[in-house]
Amino acid sequence: MTVPLPPPNRIYLLRHAESARAEPGQRDFDRPLNEKGYGDAEIIADKAADKGYRPDLLISSTAQRCRDTADAVYRAMGLSLEVRYVDALYNATVDNYIEIVDAQEEEAVMLIGHNPTMEQALEALIGHEAMVSALPGGFPTAGLAVIDFDASATAWRLTDFVVV
């Protein structure tokens, strides 16, 4: 796997908020956020907006829980935010996540996706030690990693990790 170089210069990795358990006969793909998840999605989206964290492009998995999370971000960021839903983010590998980011020309891109791939993508970008140091308990639901490219070191750095 090759770590991407800019653009984008900033990558936001947002794990979807907490989802409901599957109802009998319901596919995993169709699980929405639970009540806590809906609230957490709104809170994390508002916190990101308050900190000025605004992507030029939001790319979300098509799974319902990611769409629900993306809706909260869209409401918090304003109606001019471009949103794309990508089937390939559901059950994707870390290589898929990195390739999708690497293919973008925008300055700031947000991915809304799933664990464990979200955590693996963060680790691929900033390295194992930095990831474990920043997230000793793993990548929580509704967690937002803000990663910037450090041109002087030719490396990605975790700038902030926003939680509910």
Automatic annotation (TrEMBL):
Family annotation (SMART domains): PGAM
Superkingdom of origin organism: Bacteria
Keyword Hydrolase in record: yes
InterPro entries: His_Pase_superF_clade-1, His_PPase_superfam
CDD domains: HP_PGM_like (cd07067)
Enzyme Commission no: 3.1.3.-
Pfam family, any one: His_Phos_1
Matching Gene3D superfamilies: Phosphoglycerate mutase-like (3.40.50.1240)
Molecular function in Gene Ontology: hydrolase activity
Keywords noted in UniProt: Hydrolase
UniProt name for this protein: Histidine phosphatase family protein
Protein species of origin: Rhizobium pisi
Lineage of the organism: Bacteria, Pseudomonadati, Pseudomonadota, Alphaproteobacteria, Hyphomicrobiales
